[in-house]
Amino acid sequence: MPASVASAEPEAEREVTIVRETNVPARFLFRAWSRPEHLLTWFGPPGCPLTLCEVDFRVGGRFRFAMTGPDGVTMMPFGGSYLAIEDNRLLQYSSAFEEPGAETMLVTVRFEERRGHTTITMHTLFESIAMMRAHVGRGYRNGVNAALDQLNALVSGWSDA
User: Fold this and answer.
1) 65: β partners
2) What is the extent of the structural domain holding 54?
3) Is 160 part of any domain?
4) Distance CA 66, CA 74 (A)
5) Is position 2 within any domain?
6) Is the residue at 142 inside a domain?
7) Contacts of 9 (CB under 8 A, 6+ apart)
8) I need a labelling partner for 56 at 20 to 30 A (CA). Which of 34, 78, 82, 146 fits?
9) Count of domains for the chain
10) What CATH number does the domain containing 32 carry?
């Protein structure tokens, strides 16, 4: 775990886990999560698309995103580093807003495929309880679920052809 996410506060009080089932192979989900051209189409809640998407998809590589709201105003950019990548199985990254003193979250996404169906487990560990409560209060769970709906819609029609 990055030192910036380590805390004396109990992990159980700083985490959010979202689990989704989908009828598509893990390789499609992973591809959509790893390439900027796909991230631009699904990441973020409806009405707040990514309009900045810089990705160096490798362990140690960085990403930088910004969403634009329905009012046309670009929100504060955020980004982090890719900490672990296992093709079609695991993605782990740090993430923080680009502001002085911003707290960091650690996001771990697991893709578990069985017979063409995939379980996505997205675990977010926030640096503090206050950070977790602030994100949840601003709709973090709903936003992630809406983005996962968009991800599923994007990859549902994909094939290996």
Assistant:
1) 53, 78
2) 11-155
3) no
4) 7
5) no
6) yes
7) 128, 129
8) 146
9) 1
10) 3.30.530.20
Percent over 90 (pLDDT), the chain? 88
Q: What is the mean pLDDT of the chain?
A: 93
What is the 8-class DSSP label of residue 114?
E
Q: Give this prediction's pTM.
A: 0.92
Query: Could you write out the three-class secondary structure of 58-100?
Result: CCCCEEEEEEECCCCCECCCEEEEEEEEECCCEEEEEEEECCC
The verdict on residue 1 lying in a domain is no
Task: Give every strand in the sheet of 62-67, ordered side by side.
Answer: 15-22, 117-126, 105-114, 90-97, 78-86, 62-67, 50-55
Q: ∠131-38-89 over CA atoms, to 5°?
A: 70
Pick left, alpha or beta for residue 116 (phi over 0 → left; psi -120 to 50 → alpha; otherwise beta). left
On whether the CB atoms of residues 132 and 113 are closer than 8 A, the answer is no
Q: How many CB atoms lie within 10 A of CB 60?
A: 9
Exposed e or buried b for every residue in 83-120, given b needs 16+ CB within 10 A?
Answer: bebeebeebbbbbbeeeeeebbbbbbbbbebeeeebeb
CA distance 100 to 88: 34
